[in-house]
Amino acid sequence: MPVTVEVRSGGGDLDALFAWLRRVDALFSPYRPDSEVARLDRGVLALADADPLVREVLADCAALHAATGGWFDARATGRLDPSGYVKGWAVDRAAGLLAGRWCINAGGDLRVGGGPWRIGIQHPRRRDRVAAVLELTDAAVATSGAYERGAHVLDPYTRRPAAGALSVTVVGPRLGTADAYATAAFALGEAGPAWTAGLAPYEAMTILPRRRVLATRGFPRRATAAAAA
Amino acid sequence: MRRALAALVVTVVAVWLLVSYETRPPRTVNPNAPLGPDPTPRAIAPRTKAAEPTPTPRPDGVDGDSRTVTGPATITPFSVIQVQVTLTKGRLTDVVTVALTGDGPHTDAINARAEPILRREALRAGGAKGIDAVSGATYTTASWKQSLQAAIDKAKGRD
Questions:
Q1: Is the ipTM of this complex over 0.85?
Q2: Closest Cα in chain B to A208
Q3: Predicted TM-score of the model (pTM)
Q4: Any chain A CB within 8 A of the CB of B98?
Q5: Domain for residue B16, yes or no?
Q6: What pLDDT digit, counting tens, does each position of B91-132 carry?
Q7: Does some domain include residue B137?
Q8: Which of A182, A189, B50, B84 counts the highest number of beta carbons within 10 A?
Q9: What are the tens digits of pLDDT across the range A10-27?
Q10: Yes or no, beta carbons of A197 and B114 under 8 Å apart
Protein backbone atom coordinates (compact mmCIF):
# COMPACT_ATOMS: atom_id res chain seq x y z
CA MET A 1 0.00 0.00 0.00
CA PRO A 2 1.61 3.26 -1.01
CA VAL A 3 2.06 5.65 1.85
CA THR A 4 2.90 9.28 1.40
CA VAL A 5 5.54 10.46 3.83
CA GLU A 6 5.78 14.16 4.39
CA VAL A 7 8.57 15.65 6.43
CA ARG A 8 8.73 19.17 7.77
CA SER A 9 12.00 19.98 9.38
CA GLY A 10 14.32 22.87 9.84
CA GLY A 11 17.36 20.65 9.89
CA GLY A 12 18.63 17.16 9.62
CA ASP A 13 19.59 14.80 6.85
CA LEU A 14 16.49 14.44 4.71
CA ASP A 15 18.34 12.52 2.00
CA ALA A 16 19.36 9.94 4.55
CA LEU A 17 15.81 9.80 5.87
CA PHE A 18 14.25 9.02 2.52
CA ALA A 19 17.04 6.59 1.68
CA TRP A 20 16.14 4.80 4.89
CA LEU A 21 12.46 4.70 3.99
CA ARG A 22 13.27 3.29 0.56
CA ARG A 23 15.37 0.60 2.20
CA VAL A 24 12.49 -0.24 4.53
CA ASP A 25 10.14 -0.53 1.58
CA ALA A 26 12.53 -2.82 -0.26
CA LEU A 27 12.81 -5.08 2.78
CA PHE A 28 9.23 -5.10 4.02
CA SER A 29 6.78 -4.37 1.22
CA PRO A 30 4.40 -7.32 0.79
CA TYR A 31 3.63 -5.92 -2.65
CA ARG A 32 7.15 -6.34 -3.94
CA PRO A 33 7.78 -9.98 -4.84
CA ASP A 34 11.49 -9.58 -4.15
CA SER A 35 11.09 -8.08 -0.67
CA GLU A 36 12.22 -10.20 2.25
CA VAL A 37 8.71 -10.17 3.71
CA ALA A 38 7.24 -11.48 0.44
CA ARG A 39 9.92 -14.17 0.24
CA LEU A 40 9.33 -15.15 3.86
CA ASP A 41 5.62 -15.41 3.12
CA ARG A 42 6.28 -17.67 0.13
CA GLY A 43 8.59 -19.80 2.22
CA VAL A 44 11.61 -19.25 0.02
CA LEU A 45 13.48 -17.31 2.72
CA ALA A 46 14.16 -18.70 6.18
CA LEU A 47 13.72 -16.35 9.10
CA ALA A 48 17.23 -17.13 10.29
CA ASP A 49 18.58 -15.88 6.97
CA ALA A 50 16.53 -12.69 6.97
CA ASP A 51 17.94 -9.23 7.54
CA PRO A 52 18.35 -8.40 11.25
CA LEU A 53 15.91 -5.52 10.77
CA VAL A 54 13.29 -7.95 9.48
CA ARG A 55 13.83 -10.26 12.43
CA GLU A 56 13.53 -7.30 14.80
CA VAL A 57 10.25 -6.17 13.29
CA LEU A 58 8.75 -9.64 13.31
CA ALA A 59 9.77 -10.07 16.96
CA ASP A 60 8.10 -6.74 17.75
CA CYS A 61 4.98 -7.86 15.89
CA ALA A 62 4.90 -11.12 17.83
CA ALA A 63 5.21 -9.20 21.11
CA LEU A 64 2.43 -6.82 20.11
CA HIS A 65 0.29 -9.75 19.01
CA ALA A 66 0.59 -11.16 22.51
CA ALA A 67 0.27 -7.79 24.24
CA THR A 68 -3.00 -7.13 22.43
CA GLY A 69 -4.44 -10.58 23.02
CA GLY A 70 -4.18 -11.29 19.31
CA TRP A 71 -5.99 -8.18 18.18
CA PHE A 72 -2.92 -6.81 16.47
CA ASP A 73 -2.06 -9.45 13.91
CA ALA A 74 0.53 -9.13 11.16
CA ARG A 75 -1.19 -12.09 9.53
CA ALA A 76 -4.79 -10.84 9.79
CA THR A 77 -5.13 -10.96 6.03
CA GLY A 78 -3.96 -14.56 5.92
CA ARG A 79 -0.59 -13.49 4.60
CA LEU A 80 2.46 -12.07 6.29
CA ASP A 81 1.96 -8.31 6.21
CA PRO A 82 3.66 -6.35 9.01
CA SER A 83 3.02 -3.06 7.19
CA GLY A 84 0.77 -1.82 9.97
CA TYR A 85 3.73 -1.82 12.32
CA VAL A 86 6.59 -1.20 9.91
CA LYS A 87 5.45 2.25 8.91
CA GLY A 88 5.52 3.60 12.45
CA TRP A 89 8.63 1.67 13.33
CA ALA A 90 10.46 3.12 10.35
CA VAL A 91 9.40 6.63 11.32
CA ASP A 92 10.57 6.06 14.89
CA ARG A 93 13.94 4.96 13.55
CA ALA A 94 14.15 7.96 11.26
CA ALA A 95 13.56 10.40 14.08
CA GLY A 96 17.25 10.37 14.93
CA LEU A 97 18.06 11.82 11.52
CA LEU A 98 16.16 15.04 12.17
CA ALA A 99 16.95 17.96 14.38
CA GLY A 100 15.09 20.84 15.93
CA ARG A 101 11.40 21.15 15.31
CA TRP A 102 10.15 18.56 12.88
CA CYS A 103 7.08 16.59 11.87
CA ILE A 104 6.88 13.34 9.94
CA ASN A 105 3.45 12.58 8.51
CA ALA A 106 3.25 9.02 7.22
CA GLY A 107 -0.18 8.55 5.71
CA GLY A 108 -2.00 10.23 8.56
CA ASP A 109 0.15 8.83 11.35
CA LEU A 110 2.53 11.39 12.77
CA ARG A 111 5.56 11.78 14.90
CA VAL A 112 6.70 15.22 15.92
CA GLY A 113 9.92 16.48 17.44
CA GLY A 114 9.96 19.65 19.46
CA GLY A 115 6.80 21.63 19.49
CA PRO A 116 4.18 22.39 20.22
CA TRP A 117 2.55 21.10 17.08
CA ARG A 118 -1.15 21.55 16.54
CA ILE A 119 -2.47 18.27 15.25
CA GLY A 120 -6.01 17.89 14.01
CA ILE A 121 -7.78 14.58 14.37
CA GLN A 122 -9.72 13.77 11.25
CA HIS A 123 -13.47 13.86 11.73
CA PRO A 124 -14.74 10.36 10.88
CA ARG A 125 -17.91 11.54 9.16
CA ARG A 126 -16.99 14.84 7.57
CA ARG A 127 -13.90 14.77 5.49
CA ASP A 128 -13.28 18.50 5.53
CA ARG A 129 -13.50 18.79 9.30
CA VAL A 130 -11.51 17.79 12.32
CA ALA A 131 -12.99 16.24 15.43
CA ALA A 132 -10.35 17.58 17.81
CA VAL A 133 -7.15 19.58 17.86
CA LEU A 134 -4.26 18.44 20.03
CA GLU A 135 -1.12 20.32 20.97
CA LEU A 136 1.71 17.83 21.02
CA THR A 137 5.42 18.05 21.71
CA ASP A 138 7.85 15.16 21.14
CA ALA A 139 5.06 12.66 20.58
CA ALA A 140 3.57 10.18 18.16
CA VAL A 141 -0.09 10.05 17.16
CA ALA A 142 -1.79 7.32 15.15
CA THR A 143 -5.39 7.02 14.08
CA SER A 144 -7.12 3.87 12.93
CA GLY A 145 -10.52 4.01 11.31
CA ALA A 146 -12.78 2.71 8.63
CA TYR A 147 -14.07 5.91 7.16
CA GLU A 148 -11.64 6.03 4.30
CA ARG A 149 -10.83 3.42 1.67
CA GLY A 150 -13.45 1.11 3.05
CA ALA A 151 -12.70 -0.93 6.10
CA HIS A 152 -9.04 -1.80 6.12
CA VAL A 153 -8.72 -3.16 9.63
CA LEU A 154 -9.70 -6.80 9.78
CA ASP A 155 -10.91 -8.58 12.87
CA PRO A 156 -8.24 -11.27 13.11
CA TYR A 157 -10.75 -13.70 14.58
CA THR A 158 -13.46 -13.35 11.96
CA ARG A 159 -11.24 -11.98 9.16
CA ARG A 160 -14.01 -9.50 8.46
CA PRO A 161 -13.90 -5.73 8.72
CA ALA A 162 -13.89 -4.46 12.27
CA ALA A 163 -17.01 -2.68 13.44
CA GLY A 164 -18.14 -0.78 16.48
CA ALA A 165 -15.93 2.31 16.50
CA LEU A 166 -15.54 4.98 13.87
CA SER A 167 -11.95 5.73 14.73
CA VAL A 168 -9.37 5.28 17.45
CA THR A 169 -6.54 7.76 18.01
CA VAL A 170 -3.56 6.80 20.17
CA VAL A 171 -0.92 9.26 21.42
CA GLY A 172 2.35 8.15 22.95
CA PRO A 173 6.11 8.16 22.66
CA ARG A 174 6.56 5.69 19.79
CA LEU A 175 4.63 5.64 16.54
CA GLY A 176 4.98 1.93 15.85
CA THR A 177 3.44 1.01 19.19
CA ALA A 178 0.81 3.75 18.98
CA ASP A 179 -0.23 2.50 15.55
CA ALA A 180 -0.46 -1.11 16.72
CA TYR A 181 -2.52 -0.12 19.75
CA ALA A 182 -4.84 1.97 17.59
CA THR A 183 -5.28 -0.93 15.21
CA ALA A 184 -5.99 -3.36 18.05
CA ALA A 185 -8.38 -1.00 19.85
CA PHE A 186 -10.25 -0.39 16.64
CA ALA A 187 -10.53 -4.11 15.95
CA LEU A 188 -11.88 -4.58 19.50
CA GLY A 189 -14.86 -2.40 18.64
CA GLU A 190 -16.96 -1.43 21.62
CA ALA A 191 -14.60 -3.22 23.98
CA GLY A 192 -11.73 -1.08 22.72
CA PRO A 193 -12.10 1.90 25.06
CA ALA A 194 -11.93 -0.28 28.17
CA TRP A 195 -8.81 -1.93 26.88
CA THR A 196 -7.08 1.37 26.13
CA ALA A 197 -7.49 2.46 29.75
CA GLY A 198 -4.41 0.49 30.77
CA LEU A 199 -1.87 1.44 28.13
CA ALA A 200 -0.17 4.45 29.77
CA PRO A 201 1.89 6.30 28.68
CA TYR A 202 -0.13 5.60 25.57
CA GLU A 203 -3.48 7.38 25.71
CA ALA A 204 -6.45 6.87 23.44
CA MET A 205 -9.53 8.59 22.16
CA THR A 206 -12.27 6.45 20.59
CA ILE A 207 -15.00 7.98 18.46
CA LEU A 208 -18.12 5.85 18.50
CA PRO A 209 -21.34 6.15 16.54
CA ARG A 210 -23.97 8.63 17.65
CA ARG A 211 -21.40 11.32 18.48
CA ARG A 212 -19.99 9.46 21.44
CA VAL A 213 -16.32 10.02 22.28
CA LEU A 214 -14.41 8.18 24.96
CA ALA A 215 -10.93 9.26 25.95
CA THR A 216 -8.55 7.88 28.53
CA ARG A 217 -7.95 10.22 31.40
CA GLY A 218 -4.45 11.11 30.29
CA PHE A 219 -5.38 11.84 26.70
CA PRO A 220 -4.16 15.33 25.78
CA ARG A 221 -6.68 18.01 26.39
CA ARG A 222 -8.03 19.59 23.27
CA ALA A 223 -6.06 22.63 22.33
CA THR A 224 -9.22 24.41 21.41
CA ALA A 225 -12.90 23.83 21.66
CA ALA A 226 -13.75 23.11 18.09
CA ALA A 227 -16.13 25.48 16.42
CA ALA A 228 -19.73 24.83 17.30
CA ALA A 229 -21.36 22.71 14.67
CA MET B 1 -36.32 27.46 30.41
CA ARG B 2 -37.46 26.23 27.08
CA ARG B 3 -33.92 25.97 25.87
CA ALA B 4 -33.36 23.35 28.47
CA LEU B 5 -35.89 21.15 26.82
CA ALA B 6 -33.25 19.54 24.67
CA ALA B 7 -33.88 15.88 24.41
CA LEU B 8 -32.18 13.86 27.07
CA VAL B 9 -30.48 10.88 25.58
CA VAL B 10 -28.28 9.43 28.23
CA THR B 11 -26.28 6.29 27.94
CA VAL B 12 -24.60 5.28 31.14
CA VAL B 13 -21.29 4.29 29.70
CA ALA B 14 -19.72 3.30 32.98
CA VAL B 15 -22.30 0.63 33.49
CA TRP B 16 -21.80 -0.62 30.02
CA LEU B 17 -18.07 -0.89 30.52
CA LEU B 18 -18.28 -2.74 33.77
CA VAL B 19 -20.93 -5.11 32.60
CA SER B 20 -18.97 -5.85 29.51
CA TYR B 21 -15.87 -6.58 31.50
CA GLU B 22 -15.92 -10.06 32.84
CA THR B 23 -13.81 -11.69 35.49
CA ARG B 24 -10.19 -11.04 34.69
CA PRO B 25 -7.10 -10.82 36.80
CA PRO B 26 -5.41 -7.47 37.05
CA ARG B 27 -3.12 -6.77 34.20
CA THR B 28 0.48 -7.54 34.86
CA VAL B 29 2.06 -6.40 31.66
CA ASN B 30 3.86 -3.11 31.54
CA PRO B 31 3.15 -1.90 28.02
CA ASN B 32 5.99 0.57 28.31
CA ALA B 33 8.57 -2.12 28.72
CA PRO B 34 10.79 -2.69 25.73
CA LEU B 35 9.33 -5.19 23.36
CA GLY B 36 10.89 -8.51 24.09
CA PRO B 37 10.59 -11.96 22.65
CA ASP B 38 8.56 -13.31 25.54
CA PRO B 39 5.84 -10.92 26.66
CA THR B 40 3.21 -11.93 29.14
CA PRO B 41 -0.16 -12.13 27.45
CA ARG B 42 -2.43 -9.33 28.45
CA ALA B 43 -5.94 -9.99 29.54
CA ILE B 44 -8.36 -8.03 27.47
CA ALA B 45 -12.05 -7.52 27.36
CA PRO B 46 -14.11 -10.44 26.09
CA ARG B 47 -15.57 -10.35 22.66
CA THR B 48 -19.09 -10.90 23.84
CA LYS B 49 -20.97 -7.64 23.93
CA ALA B 50 -23.04 -6.92 26.98
CA ALA B 51 -26.47 -5.49 26.62
CA GLU B 52 -26.40 -1.74 26.93
CA PRO B 53 -28.57 -0.55 29.79
CA THR B 54 -31.34 1.84 28.99
CA PRO B 55 -31.72 4.03 32.05
CA THR B 56 -34.58 6.41 32.53
CA PRO B 57 -32.87 9.47 33.99
CA ARG B 58 -34.63 12.09 36.02
CA PRO B 59 -33.59 15.72 35.98
CA ASP B 60 -31.60 16.79 39.01
CA GLY B 61 -30.93 20.36 38.20
CA VAL B 62 -31.43 22.89 35.47
CA ASP B 63 -29.07 25.80 35.22
CA GLY B 64 -29.49 28.02 32.22
CA ASP B 65 -28.60 26.07 29.16
CA SER B 66 -27.21 23.07 30.96
CA ARG B 67 -28.86 20.41 32.98
CA THR B 68 -27.41 17.70 35.10
CA VAL B 69 -28.94 14.28 35.22
CA THR B 70 -28.17 11.40 37.49
CA GLY B 71 -28.77 7.98 36.08
CA PRO B 72 -30.28 5.16 38.06
CA ALA B 73 -28.03 3.10 40.26
CA THR B 74 -27.20 -0.03 38.38
CA ILE B 75 -26.07 -3.21 40.03
CA THR B 76 -23.53 -5.30 38.24
CA PRO B 77 -22.34 -8.68 39.46
CA PHE B 78 -19.49 -6.88 41.18
CA SER B 79 -20.50 -3.37 42.06
CA VAL B 80 -23.05 -0.63 42.03
CA ILE B 81 -22.54 2.14 39.57
CA GLN B 82 -24.23 5.46 39.25
CA VAL B 83 -23.14 8.24 36.99
CA GLN B 84 -24.21 11.78 36.49
CA VAL B 85 -24.12 13.52 33.18
CA THR B 86 -24.43 17.15 32.29
CA LEU B 87 -25.96 18.30 29.08
CA THR B 88 -25.35 21.77 27.79
CA LYS B 89 -27.63 22.86 25.01
CA GLY B 90 -28.40 19.27 24.37
CA ARG B 91 -24.78 18.18 24.29
CA LEU B 92 -23.08 15.91 26.71
CA THR B 93 -20.46 18.01 28.46
CA ASP B 94 -19.57 16.13 31.60
CA VAL B 95 -19.75 12.70 33.15
CA VAL B 96 -19.17 12.15 36.83
CA THR B 97 -19.26 8.93 38.76
CA VAL B 98 -21.36 9.52 41.84
CA ALA B 99 -21.33 5.98 43.15
CA LEU B 100 -18.88 3.23 42.53
CA THR B 101 -18.95 0.46 45.05
CA GLY B 102 -17.84 -3.09 45.33
CA ASP B 103 -15.93 -5.50 47.46
CA GLY B 104 -12.84 -7.49 46.92
CA PRO B 105 -9.81 -7.30 44.73
CA HIS B 106 -11.77 -8.33 41.69
CA THR B 107 -14.00 -5.30 41.84
CA ASP B 108 -11.03 -3.10 42.54
CA ALA B 109 -9.35 -4.39 39.44
CA ILE B 110 -12.42 -3.75 37.36
CA ASN B 111 -12.96 -0.31 38.76
CA ALA B 112 -9.33 0.59 38.27
CA ARG B 113 -9.83 -0.07 34.61
CA ALA B 114 -13.23 1.44 34.13
CA GLU B 115 -12.70 4.60 36.11
CA PRO B 116 -9.96 6.11 33.95
CA ILE B 117 -12.09 6.19 30.86
CA LEU B 118 -15.04 8.03 32.21
CA ARG B 119 -13.94 11.15 30.49
CA ARG B 120 -16.58 11.39 27.87
CA GLU B 121 -17.80 14.00 25.52
CA ALA B 122 -19.83 14.48 22.43
CA LEU B 123 -18.19 14.64 19.07
CA ARG B 124 -17.67 18.07 17.62
CA ALA B 125 -16.60 19.03 14.16
CA GLY B 126 -14.37 22.01 13.75
CA GLY B 127 -12.64 23.77 10.94
CA ALA B 128 -9.00 23.30 10.09
CA LYS B 129 -7.72 26.72 11.05
CA GLY B 130 -4.34 26.91 12.69
CA ILE B 131 -3.53 23.24 12.37
CA ASP B 132 -0.08 21.99 11.37
CA ALA B 133 -1.06 18.48 10.32
CA VAL B 134 -3.91 16.01 10.47
CA SER B 135 -3.95 12.51 11.87
CA GLY B 136 -6.41 10.26 10.11
CA ALA B 137 -6.96 6.62 9.39
CA THR B 138 -3.96 4.88 8.00
CA TYR B 139 -3.76 4.53 4.26
CA THR B 140 -5.89 7.55 3.64
CA THR B 141 -6.03 8.41 0.00
CA ALA B 142 -3.66 11.02 -1.24
CA SER B 143 -6.35 13.19 -2.75
CA TRP B 144 -8.30 13.35 0.44
CA LYS B 145 -5.28 14.19 2.51
CA GLN B 146 -4.20 16.77 0.02
CA SER B 147 -7.56 18.49 0.02
CA LEU B 148 -7.58 18.80 3.75
CA GLN B 149 -3.94 19.79 3.92
CA ALA B 150 -4.57 22.40 1.25
CA ALA B 151 -7.41 23.81 3.28
CA ILE B 152 -5.15 23.96 6.30
CA ASP B 153 -2.39 25.67 4.37
CA LYS B 154 -4.86 28.14 2.93
CA ALA B 155 -6.25 28.88 6.34
CA LYS B 156 -2.75 29.56 7.57
CA GLY B 157 -2.08 31.94 4.71
CA ARG B 158 0.67 29.87 3.20
CA ASP B 159 -1.20 29.07 0.02
A1: no
A2: B123
A3: 0.62
A4: no
A5: no
A6: 444 444 444 444 444 444 444 444 444 355 666 666 656 777
A7: yes
A8: A182
A9: 777 888 888 898 899 889
A10: yes
